[in-house]
Amino acid sequence: FAPFSRCAMPLSLVALVFVYACQCRPATTPEVRSFIEPALLADEDLTEGRFAGTLQASATTLDRTGIPTEFLTFNGGIPGPQIRVRQGDEVSIRFLNGLPDGHDWSSGVHWHGIEGYNASDGTPLTEVGILPGAETTYTFRATRPGVYWYHPHIRGAQAIFSGLYGPLIVVDPAEDELIARGVLPTDDRVLVLSDTWTSQGIVTSAESTNAMEIMNGTEGRELLVNGHLRPTLDVVAGSAVRLRLINSSITRFWRVSVPGHTLIRVGGEGGLLNHARVEGGSVTGERFDITTGALLGPAEVSLGYERGEVLLAPGERADVVLITDGVVGDEWPLRWEDSPRGRHEMWVEDGEMVMGDAADDGTRPGVEVARFRLVAGEEAPITLADGTPLLAAVGRSIDPVATPANAQWFDEAGTTLDEEMTHEEDENGEQVMTTWFGMNGVSWHPDHMAGPEQPMAPSAKSARIGDTIEWEVRNNSMMAHPYHLHGFSYQPYALVFWPDPDHATADNSAVRVPWSHDEFEDTTLIPPFASLYFRVHLSDPAGDGSAAGRWVQHCHILQHGENGTMSELVVSP
Q: pLDDT at residue 246 above 50?
């Protein structure tokens, strides 16, 4: 990524910089523990095609880091229970708020990635925060298969950092046939990836007032897989294991690797793919003149992670397969590796503080977060490689969203992700550093006790059920941001990498990279100074107008969203 333009900073901030820098160190390696799958949430309605369950949020003391610590949990666990349903199921979840008393812990549940049921979206635009001691019920139909998750959207950064998150898996009926054919493995695991920071029996605050920490986002020093430190997962040698990966961290990007082995992507946010693929490395785009549009030749763009790895920004998910082609007794590490995302730092230069890209952005030491241990068992080899048919093998396909669109939201009509960091003099004459986050030049965040009657976001978009929109979301900042749209899955079709305004290319050019597949997404990482182009059809899955309403769009680095990188899409009947 291009260097961040420098600006002077006061020496008085050196201590704050040191405090933040300490947060980047991983915890010491703990003892190896057994892998624990998130427990299945009990189904209280045994009717075919229906699922009903109960989630209760509460403070729970757990020993996950060697010291008993008070976390916030769903049903007493980290992560919360696994909700597993089949495509088309009617889902009803009763939520009980057992969090500490007071307005500070009003809460709710957002079903990240679930489409079309506005009244159950669990945000301050769809409901007044559920007070401690109160309850509500969320209902929706699981219309699209895929890997999803749930979490509060009120004080989301602190709630998730403290343990309030859980997996939601919507199973595609086609999986049974693909497993029977030996294309997908029978061994199917959910891995919820998170981080936190515990100290003296409590989870530290992610609601920082430190401008640099807010800008970079809080990263925990304890990296957890299913709420545990460095668990070991036994898998059968000569077979394969399916890993449904969820990044529930509030800031941390998870670049996941198994050194010497390949993670094969079979699905993710929008269910199974047409064909399996191996991701990472670099992609080829077309350089073009920004002024004239003239094509200037091919250009290679690095993705920031190696081929055979997976990169997940906060809120993103992936469905991958690891082929266990070793021998009994082999042990393979699952590693977190750093990836460049535009983290900033400050240093002293000529007696002043200056700010720029962190020297270790993308180069911090990797950490083993789990381990695979190959054991004896009934071998079940599978036939899977880059390009292997998946949906295509069972006569189905993910088709492109139809065009032409009802609206094209490009350039000024599109959505921008904006940020600024400055230092200024306060009323006491002291130099202080400030941050500002916004969408379309406006900083906004809803009032969690105002509910659906609160004023509309100044940068809100408006459309109607049934519209198809071509949409540009442009990242105007020096940092990578994961963009998340509630209520509707979209289909990306291109990324454009614009020049850094402070380091413009001599030929005034940009690079357009076409999206190489038709996957539906709801959360997408947008690199610095890049535009994501996607098509979205505003469908109404229930057919009764349930998709009409106020839908949040925001950056899923939660401190960015909660500090203003947020807006809404208002969908009319």
A: yes
